[in-house]
Amino acid sequence: MISQWHGTCDLRLFRKPGSQNTDNFKTSHQAKYTAPLKLMKVFNDRKDGRCEIPILHSAGGIVGGDQLTINVNSEENSSAICSSVAAQKVYGSRGRSKLNPQGRWANQKCVFQIEKNADLEWIPQELIVYKGGLFEQNMTVNLDPSSSFFCVDLVRLGRTAAGEELGNGIWRSSLEIFRKNNKGKHYEFSDRLELSGEALKSVHGLEKKPVFGSLTWITPKKIKQKDLSELLVKCRQQRSGLEGFMTCSLLENGISARYTGSSTQSARFWFYRIWTLTRILRKSSLPEYMRIWPMQENPSTDKKCP
């Protein structure tokens, strides 16, 4: 019997002491973690002072019963991007054990606390759910009105290169974003999904496409609706040359994008282009792939982002 893991990673992100000049600051970090989660080398030498946090899952993959908990506290004026070092694998669970023939769920829980004028980007690499895998992710974000949260979620259902589908496996995701106000906090955005069974085949679901992706950007309250509407138009223009079905819609304070198709590369490229546009709107530096990512393709179109 394979033993289950309960890995934890607690991160504190803060403006480095002595970096009070907003045009020349560095974000630093403190971390505490338990296996199988650990941090690789953290970089904070970008010109915009953004800290790059590469989180490594040191086991060979996730099995039924595993629990991963990630807590990130982005303190006032901090700026960071968190990512995974490699694509994550979720092994099949159903029908693998006489004790638990229905399988066991693997779970990842992420809690993000984002304080005043902080900017956090959560961009892990893709998740691959093997046939019969059971995986549930729950993300909770507490966001200050002056702050920003950008996240991407990309999943491949089955090892399609080997002709494998998800079968009786299930992928679930919950994203809840709260905003502080003078009465406490209220919902800014809520998104709950389950991909399994008929939803994998239906015309109202994935239509047998193995790749699904979501992008969410919640902006600081000061961003104007006019600017967001213009951003939406530009995001939709970035789909050229990519395969798959891509949609993008406007939120009260942000945007939401979806991808369904067969190409994780196309999904990643489109999300990268949107990511670039959000940085431009924030008057921040253009994004760069994290140094620990193994694939560094050029996602740009022939036409430069406006």
Notes on the protein architecture:
There is one protein chain. The chain is mainly β and 306 residues long. The chain contains 2 helices and 17 strands. A hairpin with a 2-residue loop joins strand 16 and strand 17.
Short key terms for the protein model shown above:
306 residues; mainly beta; 10-stranded mixed β-sheet; 7-stranded mixed β-sheet; 17 strands; 10% helix; globular
pLDDT averaged residue by residue: 90
User: What's the SSE pattern?
Assistant: EEEEEEEEEEEEEEEHEEH
In angstroms, what is the radius of gyration? 19 Å
Q: Could you describe the largest sheet, including whether it forms a barrel?
A: 10 strands, mixed
Number of helices: 2
Q: Say how many strands there are.
A: 17
Structural class: mainly beta
Q: Report how far the terminal alpha carbons are from each other.
A: 55 Å
Shape: globular
- Percentage beta strand: 35-45%
The domain count comes to 1
In the predicted model, the low-confidence regions spanning at least 5 consecutive residues are 301-306
Helix content: 10-25%
